[in-house]
Specification:
The chain has 312 residues and is α/β, with parallel strands linked by helices. The chain is built from 10 helices and 13 strands. The protein has 3 domains: 115 residues, D-Maltodextrin-Binding Protein, domain 2, CATH 3.40.190.10; 82 residues, Periplasmic binding protein-like II (D-Maltodextrin-Binding Protein, domain 2, 3-Layer(aba) Sandwich), CATH 3.40.190; 74 residues, Porphobilinogen deaminase, C-terminal domain (Double Stranded RNA Binding Domain, 2-Layer Sandwich). Bound molecules: the ligand NCc1[nH]cc(CCC(=O)O)c1CC(=O)O. Its EC number is 2.5.1.61.
Length: 312
């Protein structure tokens, strides 16, 4: 056990969602007896309002925090796991994946209408190709348009009447204390979440053994197992940031069950697999998709140097 009381510098983006996540991790560490100081780090994703698919995917939220870690300006960083590119980052380790929040997506709509009750031609905003393709299948009578910005701004588009509905992660809304504004929870049968949705990743320098050891106390094994399977699928597909892929792993007794969906030019391809080893399960799912995808759908999955991240 650590006996000295270091003050840990926790790097966070300034957004309300980021500070709520970072604040939660800071509280967990304080409960273990450590001093924690929040250090604000600004990222390209926060400064620009261009579509994420144009500025390099959700990884833009991550790179500035990683730089601050590598330069020793902070000791740990908290990321939304779904925004973290698949693959190892030199010199850094995800020392903790705490227990996952609700992984599902929710709808916020005018008059609290459910998706099925929205009128013909209703306009739903989302910047996520994954949400768009699943909405097309679940609510074919609606129209999906692009949308970005922080959670508050997105909700404002419904409140001010410029959109009929939006889709958001339940986890983010809960962390902001605004879950009561949801008009419908989308079950995984209707809308599979992004790989890793609802989970946090707490990262530190590999050579900082003390911080690594102390962060490991926040790790939640069942969450790590599930998100490992989901992200192995993404990694094996070398999914580009515009790849519309949803995945959710859940444990059923001895078996880990992976549900996944991919949007193709002919509609959704959805599959369920059971296994025991998370990485193998993700890879098997990738193999299934690759053997069932039409040739014209495969190029959209190819990784590009700047865009190797899942969309929201
Ligand atoms: N892409 C943005 C993003 N990244 C993480 C969350 C919150 C949910 C989570 O922690 O997985 C959100 C907002 C959203 O998708 O509604």
């Amino acid at each position: 056990m650590t006996h000295d009381r270091r003050s840990l510098r926790l790097g966070t983006r300034a957004s309300e969602l980021a500070t709520s996540q970072s604040g939660w991790v800071a509280d967990q560490l304080r409960a273990l007896g450590h001093e924690v100081e929040l250090v604000l780090v600004s990222t390209e994703g926060d400064r620009s309002s261009a579509p994420l698919t144009q500025i390099g995917g959700t990884g833009v939220f991550v790179s500035a925090l990683r730089e601050a870690l590598q330069e020793g300006r902070i000791d740990l960083a908290v990321h939304s796991l779904k925004d973290l590119p698949v693959g190892e980052e030199a010199g850094l380790v995800v020392a903790a994946i705490p227990e996952r929040e609700d992984p599902r997506d929710i709808v916020i709509s005018r008059d609290r209408l459910r998706l099925a009750d929205l009128p013909e031609g209703a306009v739903i905003g989302t910047g996520s190709p994954r949400r768009a393709v699943q909405l097309e299948a679940a609510a074919p009578h609606t129209t999906v348009v692009g949308l970005r910005g922080n959670v508050g701004r997105r909700i404002g588009k419904v409140t001010d009447g410029s959109l009929d509905a939006i889709v958001l992660a339940a986890a983010g809304l809960r962390r902001l204390g605004r879950i009561a504004e949801a008009s419908e929870v989308l079950e995984p049968a209707v809308m599979l979440p992004a790989p890793g949705q609802g989970a946090l990743a707490v990262e530190c320098r590999t050579d900082d053994r003390e911080t690594t050891r102390l962060l490991m106390q926040l790790d939640h094994a069942p969450t790590r197992e599930a998100v490992t399977a989901e992200r192995a699928l993404l990694g094996a597909l070398e999914a580009g940031c515009s790849a519309p892929i949803g995945a959710l792993a859940t444990r059923h007794g001895d078996a880990l069950v992976l549900d996944a969906v991919i949007g193709t030019s002919e509609g959704l391809l959805r599959h369920t697999l059971r296994g025991t080893t998370p990485v193998d399960l993700g890879h098997e799912m990738a193999h299934h998709f690759l053997t069932h995808l039409a040739p014209q759908d495969r190029p959209s999955l190819l990784k590009t140097p700047t865009a190797q991240h899942p969309g929201a």
